[in-house]
Write a structure and sequence with these properties.
Shape of chain B: elongated
Distance between the termini of chain A: 65 Å
Structural class of chain B: alpha/beta
Number of strands of chain A: 13
Helix content of chain A: 55-70%
Number of strands of chain B: 12
CATH class of the largest domain in chain B: Alpha Beta
Number of domains of chain B: 2
Number of domains of chain A: 3
Order of helices and strands of chain A: HHHEEEEEEHHHEHEEHEEHEEH
Radius of gyration of chain B: 19 Å
Strand content of chain A: 15-25%
Largest interface: A-B, 37 and 24 residues
Oligomer: heterodimer
Chain lengths: 483, 224
């Protein structure tokens, strides 16, 4: 019941269209279209304005030229000559858009191609603007605007020379039409392109989402396929695939640790149960206390295993970093030598502790001692009877270091990386007691101290070195010196 | 002797209460940090056993408050965290000893007795420790048994000194590691046992009666 409630709604169930218009690609395409449209509009406006100005100038120049010519005529031949010239000009075929009118002061036309002196005249600088109608022979009436100049002549006569602006108006209309079409094209292309682009991008993102969904439903080996173009989507896919590989590896190692924990704890728990059962049956007999004692020892072993796991977790979480102080490794080695010497002797081994003072590191004293103790425990466990176990601390070629060396069977090179994983025990050590957590804890403590655990061949045997590196040793010495 | 147990976990509390009662102690139990501090400030307890994680007021604050109020009652801190730092923090806050859950009852009892003893016989400047015919001269660093001089290495001397100062009490291996070597860690092997058996060789071999006894499942005790 609760499963149904907690199950998240799959992303797939959303309608495709909504999702499509909500994509960032689409929004981007829309914004791009808008910007592009505005710039096209601005460009067209600029073009329109300059073309319009050019036409206006052309018109003005044509009118000025006519006025010049008529003025010449007037000076030579007077009113009669002017009238003749105007009449001659007005009778030219109508291709020219020039307008002429010579009229009396009360507006009666004497010559020219206009029927009357225009009304509704607006002034713009030296120019007169007025609407005109043209009646073509076909019966069409064309309305447009004219641009003209007028002059007062002697005898109360008035002359007006102008030009029909219809070319300019036609151009204007054309330009506006063209702009509208261009804008429409921009919008259609922009949105269409945006749609196509977002569909493509969405397709590739959907591929990633599908893989994620597959993995969620249990197909942990699923991976995002690459397009092969090496673009950012391919790079994203590669990164995701690497991440998935890493997660798979981690999940695998967690699983194996879990299986190992279960496996390693099952036997002592079974023995514990067996002993308690026997103790229950023999409650009044002689060996009762002994059985209970054995059960307690089994339980202690289990607790020790969990303590080691907790210590590893603590070291891995880095929680103890705050409790670090400057520590001379020599002191640690001397203490460890003192503590373990009798145990070594009992096992017919010689424990040699040598230390050079001056290898100072920032460390958590208890944890580092635990690490050293684990290494010594291991060495004492595997060193052959009559042998020597050497503990050393000092400044090595790579800075401050701590090492424990024995002449036991050692660890084959291929296994060295594996033995620091929790619960990994080599076949040769199956017969000896131990939880398989000792080296894991050492490695975790080393990492916490920024040190490196190196397992090397001691020819024969194993040399375990905790190398702190030059920088750490130096900075710790400096810190120690400044106090 | 009255012991105040401040512990919110009912199972642990019942276990500690029952076991210590059986050993003849009078236990009073509270499950809350605030009440605990109130009772500890008020009543004349010989010892306070204090859980680290408590509702109301956490364990460390309780110790700090007690010490700030000038109350010298020994405090044993219990913790489920089991981490070195917590131990350091606990002792720094004013706790007298620190024990990690899960613990063996023997370990708890040994530490309770050590703390109670320390309280009833505050450490005074002694120059001689004796048990039966065993004598330790702390000034001359000499040990004699039955008048015969016994040759001890410095570490063996300190081990024996610790045992003699706790004569008649059970001393656990962890207590020895902390008290004699000043390290708190989990040895995977019986390092301490070997030191003890060496010491036993020197002080008990050829003498009657044996003074250094092993207490199974708990540790060691020195008694006549």
């Amino acid at each position: 019941m609760s499963k149904a409630v907690s199950e998240p709604t799959p992303a797939r169930a959303q309608p495709v269209r909504n999702r499509f218009f909500a994509t960032s690609t689409f929004r981007l395409a829309l914004l791009y279209t808008l910007l592009f449209g505005v710039s096209v509009l601005a460009l067209l406006a600029l073009f329109y304005w300059s073309a319009d100005r050019a036409l206006e100038r052309q018109t003005s120049e044509a009118i000025e030229a006519e006025i010049q010519a008529l003025n010449e005529r007037y000076r030579i031949a007077g009113i009669t000559g002017l009238t003749a010239a105007i009449t001659e000009r007005a009778s030219r075929p109508r291709v020219s858009d020039m307008l002429y009118i010579l009229a009396t002061s009360d507006g009666v036309p004497l010559a020219g191609n206009m029927t009357a002196w225009p009304k509704d005249v607006r002034r713009q600088d030296a120019w007169l603007l007025f609407p005109i109608e043209r009646h073509w022979q076909t019966g069409e009436v064309e309305r447009s605007e004219a641009r003209a100049r007028s002059f007062e002549l002697p005898q109360g006569l008035r002359l007006m020379v102008g030009r029909d602006n219809r070319e300019r108006l036609t151009l204007r209309a054309l330009m506006i039409e063209a702009s509208a079409w261009s804008l429409l094209a921009v919008v259609v292309l922009g949105i269409g392109g945006g749609l196509v682009l977002s569909r493509r991008v969405l397709g590739r993102i959907d591929a990633v989402a599908r893989v994620a969904e597959e993995i969620r439903s249990g197909a942990v080996t699923a991976r995002v396929s690459l397009a092969g173009s090496g673009d950012e989507f391919d790079r994203l896919a590669e990164t995701l695939n690497r991440m998935l590989d890493e997660i798979e590896r981690l999940v695998g190692s967690i699983r194996s640790v879990t299986v190992n924990i279960a496996h390693d704890l099952k036997s002592p728990l079974t023995r514990l149960r067996g002993r308690l059962e026997m103790a229950l049956r023999s409650i009044d007999s002689e060996g009762h206390g002994e059985l209970v004692q054995q059960a307690i020892e089994e339980a202690d072993g289990l607790i020790a295993t969990f303590n080691a796991l907790l210590s590893i977790a603590e070291a891995q979480s880095g929680g103890s970093a705050a409790e670090m102080s400057d520590l001379d490794l020599a002191q640690l080695v001397e203490d460890a030598g003192d503590l373990y010497e009798p145990l070594a002797e009992e096992r017919s081994l010689r424990l040699e502790a040598k230390a050079e003072h001056g290898a100072v590191v920032r460390a958590n004293r208890e944890m580092l001692f635990q690490a050293l103790a684990n290494l010594i425990d291991n060495a004492l466990k595997y060193a052959p009877s009559g042998g020597v176990v050497r503990i050393w601390a000092g400044l090595g070629p790579d800075g401050a270091e701590l090492s424990v060396a024995d002449h036991g069977p050692g660890i084959p090179e291929a296994e060295r990386a594996r033995v620091i994983e929790p619960f990994v025990r080599l076949d040769q050590s199956r017969g000896t007691p131990g939880s398989g957590l000792g080296l894991s804890l050492v490695a975790a403590i080393a990492r916490l101290h920024g040190a490196e655990l190196r397992l090397e061949d001691n020819q024969p045997g194993l040399r375990a070195r905790l190398v702190f590196g030059r920088e750490r040793a130096a900075s710790a010495r400096q810190a120690a010196g400044s106090h | 002797m009255r012991i105040l147990l401040i512990e919110d976990d009912a199972t642990t509390a019942a276990y500690v209460e029952r076991a210590l009662s059986e050993c003849g102690y009078l236990i009073e139990h509270v499950g809350d940090g605030r009440d605990g501090l109130f009772r500890a400030t008020d009543g004349g307890y010989s010892l306070v056993i204090l859980d680290r994680m408590l509702p109301g007021l956490d364990g460390l604050s309780v110790v700090q408050a007690l010490r700030a109020a000038g109350i010298p009652t020994p405090v044993l801190i219990l913790s489920a965290l089991g981490q070195v730092d917590d131990r350091v923090k606990g002792l720094r806050a004013g706790g007298d000893d620190y024990l990690t859950k899960p613990f063996a009852f023997a370990e708890l009892l040994a530490r309770v007795e050590a703390l109670l003893r320390r309280k009833s016989a505050p450490p005074q400047e002694v120059t001689r420790l004796t048990l039966g015919d065993l004598e330790m001269d702390l000034l001359r660093r000499e040990v004699r048994r039955g008048g015969r001089l016994i040759d001890l290495k410095p570490r063996e001397f300190r081990l024996l000194e610790f045992l003699l100062r706790h004569a008649g009490q059970v001393v656990t291996r962890t207590m020895l590691l902390e008290g004699v070597w000043d390290y708190h860690f989990d040895p995977q092997t019986n390092v301490i046992d070997v030191h003890i058996s060496r010491l036993r060789q020197k002080i008990d071999k050829g003498f009657e009666p044996p003074l250094l006894h092993t207490v199974r499942g708990a540790g060691y005790i020195m008694r006549v």
